[in-house]
């Protein structure tokens, strides 16, 4: 998958951050946390309910939203960003922080570095939406994301 013009690919299950911020706001009253099973670098996490599950290699999604501001396309790692099951007022309070890239300091937001991530539906929450990457729908879970360091070769002029 080619890198995004906005900083890399991210497979995202957000509060409906696909498309527009307006859509996000209008979908909040109907949102229920997702039931998901995550396996990170071969270690199964407990089935849980999440407001957000994202696997990022680049820093931004959706035209510049800094979902994973600490990501580095060249470090050989993915960032797994999760947000615990939040109430609607909690989601509304954290969205402005997401826009500024300061959401990673929120106690309900967790970041784990990994080279492989598997995500599958789990009971106890709303069904997972289809995954998307760089605005393209990838399809329903289960899915696996692996980082392949050095797999993309880029022809560029020499650095001065």
Structure commentary:
It contains 2 helices and 10 strands. It has helices at residues 21-27, 88-100; strands spanning 10-13, 34-40, 43-44, 48-56, 78-84, 109-114, 116-121, 131-133, 136-139, 143-146. The protein starts with 9 loop residues before the first strand and ends in a 14-residue tail after the last strand. Residues 1-22 have low confidence and may be disordered.
Secondary-structure class: mainly beta
**Major sheet description:** 10 strands, antiparallel
Mean of residue pLDDT? 83
Instruction: Write down how many β-strands occur, each being a DSSP E stretch of 2 or more residues.
Output: 10
> What is the alpha-carbon Rg in Å?
15 Å
Discrete helix count: 2
Percentage of residues in DSSP E strands: 25-35%
Distance between the termini: 29 Å
Order of helices and strands: EHEEEEHEEEEE
Keywords:
about 30% strand, 10 strands, about 160 residues, globular, disordered N terminus, mainly beta, ten-stranded antiparallel beta sheet, about 10% helix
Structure summarized in a few sentences:
The chain is mainly beta.
Write the layout of secondary structure elements.
Blueprint: E1 10-13, H1 21-27, E2 34-40, E3 43-44, E4 48-56, E5 78-84, H2 88-100, E6 109-114, E7 116-121, E8 131-133, E9 136-139, E10 143-146
